[in-house]
UniProtKB/TrEMBL annotation:
Organism: Sulfolobus tengchongensis
Phylogenetic placement of the source organism: Archaea, Thermoproteota, Thermoprotei, Sulfolobales, Sulfolobaceae
Keyword entries, A-Z: Cell membrane, Membrane, Transmembrane, Transmembrane helix, Transport
Record Pfam families: BPD_transp_1 (PF00528)
Protein name per UniProt: ABC transporter permease
Segments traversing the membrane: 34-55, 94-120, 127-152, 158-179, 217-239, 267-291
Localization in the cell: Cell membrane
Gene Ontology cellular component list: plasma membrane
Family recorded in the similarity comment: Belongs to the binding-protein-dependent transport system permease family.
GO molecular function: dipeptide transmembrane transporter activity
Entry-linked InterPro entries: BP-dependent_transpt_permease (IPR050366), MetI-like (IPR000515), MetI-like_sf (IPR035906)
Family annotation (CDD domains): TM_PBP2
Domain ABC transmembrane type-1 stretches: 95-288
UniProt topology in membrane: Multi-pass membrane protein
Length: 323
């Protein structure tokens, strides 16, 4: 087994593992690399906001509606806030909740989808499939908004943890349904049946056979669920259902809507948070295109020049060996 080590931690990389092959395959796709760079830049921008802002994002003592200037890079809003400071602070909650929804939703999808597929046509499959169908029909974000509107009437606003729980519990059904179908197609393959015949446990079959063979879909499902988390989070705050004392890109859009920024030409108030949310979704979409190309070689864009160079190098080495 070809392995390489790096660092003082003696960390080993298995170059034949499905995870390594997936990451390498996605990285070879230019479109996925562009998406990764955009996402990395937004994450770094959001992390900077956790530790540093030019001004206190909650300070309201600045002159109102100032346009962008060297003192205020994105101007000030109608309440006297520095918009750039709010943009810096507001990124981490959106990205953090989005990634958390992606991880939790994908975990539930794997748990329910693979279990239903392995125990197909049994009572376990029927119960899990019925639950999945219910969550597929339920319009998750709409239900959360209705509950949020009801709680808002009794002076209770949704917090980050409540929104994370609500979005995670409503964003897993599609992935679970598709995974069940993929497992149904796999469970009659020779290597799965051989594993059962030699007494391999179900858990071992899941981790050694089923998950590695469905890794591209699981990775793609993570990004789709994360997009659902980010858009759901933004909608909840945009409609004023979350706590409005918290600073994030959703509350920035809410206050800009309340201040009629789009009618008064205060573009620096609503375009930056909207653009950042759009860039996050765009980066996820580009990475997903890369994953699709790895999962389906017919969609893959080959770098012909790169492979020609590799062939020339291989020929040169062979000639040296022959001589």
């Amino acid at each position: 087994m070809a392995q390489s080590r790096f660092g003082i931690f003696n960390f080993k990389i298995d170059k034949y593992s499905p995870v390594y092959n997936l990451i390498r395959g996605v990285w070879e796709q230019r479109v996925a690399r562009v998406g990764f760079y955009i996402l990395l830049a937004i994450i770094i921008f959001s992390l900077i906001g956790v530790f540093y802002t030019p001004y206190n994002p909650n300070y309201t003592g600045f002159p109102r509606d100032l346009p962008p200037s060297p003192q205020h890079l994105l101007g000030t809003d109608d309440y006297g806030h520095d918009v750039f400071s709010q943009l810096l602070v507001g990124g981490f909650p959106v990205i953090g909740v989005g990634f958390a929804v992606g991880l939790i939703g994908t975990f539930i999808s794997i748990l329910v989808g693979i279990t239903a597929g392995l125990y197909a046509e049994t009572m376990i499959d029927r119960v899990l499939s019925a639950i999945t169908q219910i969550f597929l029909i339920i319009p998750g974000i709409l239900i959360i908004e209705l509950i949020g509107a009801y709680l808002g009437a009794v002076q209770f606003k949704l917090g980050y943890l409540t929104i994370l729980f609500a979005l995670s519990s409503t964003g897993w059904a599609w992935g679970s349904r598709v995974l069940r179908s993929l497992v149904l197609a796999l469970r009659r393959r020779e290597y799965i049946l051989s594993s059962e015949l030699i007494g391999e446990s179900k858990l071992s079959t899941i981790f050694r056979q089923i998950i590695p063979n469905n890794l591209p879909f699981i990775a793609s499902n993570f990004f789709f669920t994360a997009i659902y988390g980010i858009t759901g989070f933004t909608f909840i705050y945009y409609f004023g259902l979350g706590s409005l004392t918290q600073v994030n890109w959703g509350t920035m859009l809410y206050w800009s809507l309340g201040g009629e920024a789009y009618l008064r030409g205060l573009w620096w108030w609503y375009i930056p948070p909207g653009l950042m949310i759009g860039l996050v979704a765009f980066s996820f979409a580009l990475i997903n295109i890369g994953i699709d190309r790895v999962a389906n070689p017919r969609l893959r864009v080959w770098d012909v020049k790169k492979y020609m160079k590799q062939l020339e190098k291989a020929k040169e080495k062979n000639e040296v060996v022959v001589k």
